[in-house]
Amino acid sequence: MPERVKVLRLLWITVGAAATVALLGAGIVGGRIWSGRADAPSQPAVRYSRIHAVTKVIVEINSGYVQVRVGGTGRVDFERRPRDGQILDLKEVWEGDRLRLTGACRDGNGKRVTRCQAGYVLQVPAATEIEARTDSGDLTVAGLTGAVSMTSGSGDLELRNVGGPVRLTTNSGGVTAAALRSSNLEAQTNTGDVMVAFAAPPELAAVTTNTGDIELTVPPGRYRTSADTISGRREVTVPGSAASSPALQARSNSGDVRLRAG
């Protein structure tokens, strides 16, 4: 083989090998970056408790989520759940037996963020009252017997097995409630849907929406019913009686309205 051809061939092999190594190296580095994001262990939850009498918890957040569940007596258990480098940063203030939690969701640089999946889980005594407000965060209360009042801008509100009086207000967030034993429920939304199911007959369930749909499901029995919608569909399968004590009131401008027994 001519010497010039050998040199050119050797040069080509050397350059090709270097390029291959460079590409593999870039792939490995890129793979590591991707793997670091996808496979890195999730940030650990932070758990702590306060041994303190509590009768009411007030929550005010911008985004993220707060879940409140039944815990032990004479204490509040906290679980802070970071997500994607974000934390829900809450300030804790005690006013006698009332706990006030206020704060916002922040990124790793401490900057306030509005789109956030980080949150808190609280465990409180069953009879604790809850008052919560959020801009775009989601709120959930489960198992409590105390009064519950929740307000949101675009966040969703959820109740499960709650036994105290309930007042819910949202703009575009949805309302979902299951296995309710509340004697009194008032819910109001603008565009959000309301879906409520009672495990025990309420004395009064009053729901109002602008464009959101309404669905109320109650145990079998007779109820005083009022179901109105201007341009939506109306469906009432609950036996009605003007003399009945339990009252169901549902009104929407353009949303569908359904009252069902089940």
Instruction: Determine the strand fraction and express it as a percent band.
Output: over 45%
Order of helices and strands: HEEEEEEEEEEEEEEEEEEEEE
CATH fold label of the largest domain: Pectate Lyase C-like
Largest sheet: 11 strands, mixed
Transmembrane segments: 12-34
Keywords: Membrane, Transmembrane, Transmembrane helix
InterPro entries: Toastrack_DUF4097 (IPR025164)
Biased composition (Polar residues): 242-255
What does this entry look like structurally?
The protein has 262 residues and is mostly beta strands. It has 2 domains: 1-40; 46-261, Pectate Lyase C-like (3 Solenoid). The chain contains 1 helix and 21 strands. The strands form 2 sheets. An 11-stranded mixed sheet has the order 1-4-7-3-9-11-13-15-17-21-19, with no helix packed on it. Strands 5-6-2-8-10-12-14-16-20-18 form a 10-stranded mixed sheet, with no helix packed on it. A hairpin with a 2-residue loop joins strand 5 (87-95) and strand 6. The longest helix has 37 residues, at 3-39. The chain starts with a helix and ends with a strand. Mean pLDDT is 87; it is low at 1-41.
